[in-house]
Amino acid sequence: MELESLKATETYTIDSDGSPGNGVDFLDILLILAKSIRVIVAVPLLGFFIVFSFLFFLPGRFESEAIVQMPIERSLLLQSASFLDDAVKTNQWLLAQYEKQYQAREKFKKSLRIVSISGTDIYRLQYIADTPDHAEEALSSILKKLLVASKPSPGKLEELKAQLLSQTILQQTLQKLLERFNDPSAGQGNSPEVPGQSVVAIADALEKSNQAILAIEASMKGSMSDSDILQSPTRPDEPLAKGSLSKAVAAAVILFFIMLMWAFVREALQRAALEERGIKKIQSIKSLLSVRRT
């Protein structure tokens, strides 16, 4: 009698209103899990050890960092192909690893990170390489080329020198005029009296000339100088954290849920194959998939 009652309970489930229905049986779920327990457990564990071993035995990565104050156009220059190509030419490590120039450039671009400090014109330049020497020297060469690129070209420099000379002569002339007109003894003898407005105009012109000289000198120095390098490239002592354990656990969790889905889909297909209605559904699914492939 007890055996018959147990068999009877396996043929239907109870809905929320208390009447027999076609709901999900908890025992069926346990049965599906029990059938595939080995695969559900083994595959995530295998994935965990594979990912962990792969990341653990990867060579260390070292990061050198520098802090630089520069205008935004300089930061955009760091990402241009022409600048990267010039920087790669002095990077012996990359040239030894890659035969093609564009391959070395793409690797160089991926290794270089430019982080802007919010609300300022200060940037963190970070370069990641296989060795501490490579990381430090690569970032140092980047800064050197950045300083060179910020300087005016030879032709532009000659033009600025000519402008500086012209403004210097004008400044000296205006300065002498202003000193003469401000000298009380200048009004004696045959010297005419100079209106006050003319003195003010000369003083304004002299101030503008001084500002122009300062601007030209700044242009000759370039948009960046050594003083804009707030922190020189650091030499990394320890490699970057690999995160092997966390990534391996994440891979195992993903594989675990994939295996759960696989177990329930396999069970559903096996049960459907026992019924005529289920067989038709499976054939419909196959036909739909074949249509999409074509």
Model description:
The chain contains twelve helices and six strands. The strands form two sheets. Strands 4-5-3-6 form a four-stranded antiparallel sheet. 13% of the residues are buried. The protein is an alpha+beta fold and 294 residues long. Mean pLDDT is 77; it is low at 1-21. It has helices at 2-9, 26-35, 37-56, 72-77, 81-89, 92-97, 101-111, 132-150, 154-182, 196-221, 244-272, 276-293, and strands at 13-14, 20-21, 62-69, 112-116, 122-129, 229-231.
Short description:
This protein has helices at residues 2-9, 26-35, 37-56, 72-77, 81-89, 92-97, 101-111, 132-150, 154-182, 196-221, 244-272, 276-293, and strands at 13-14, 20-21, 62-69, 112-116, 122-129, 229-231. It is α+β, with helices and mostly antiparallel strands and 294 residues long. It is elongated, with a radius of gyration of 39 Å.
Quick one: biggest sheet?
4 strands, antiparallel
Q: SSE order in H/E notation? A: HEEHHEHHHHEEHHHEHH
CATH topology of the largest domain: Alpha-Beta Plaits
Question: What does the overall shape look like?
Answer: elongated
First and last CA, distance: 57 Å
Number of domains: 3
**Cα Rg:** 39 Å
DSSP summary, beta strand count = 6
> Helix coverage percent of residues?
55-70%
- Contiguous low-pLDDT stretches (5 residues minimum) are 1-21
CATH architecture of the largest domain: 2-Layer Sandwich
Q: Strand-residue fraction?
A: 5-15%
List its traits.
Alpha-Beta Plaits, alpha+beta, 6 strands, 4-stranded antiparallel sheet, single chain, 10% strand, two-stranded antiparallel ribbon, 65% helix, 294 residues
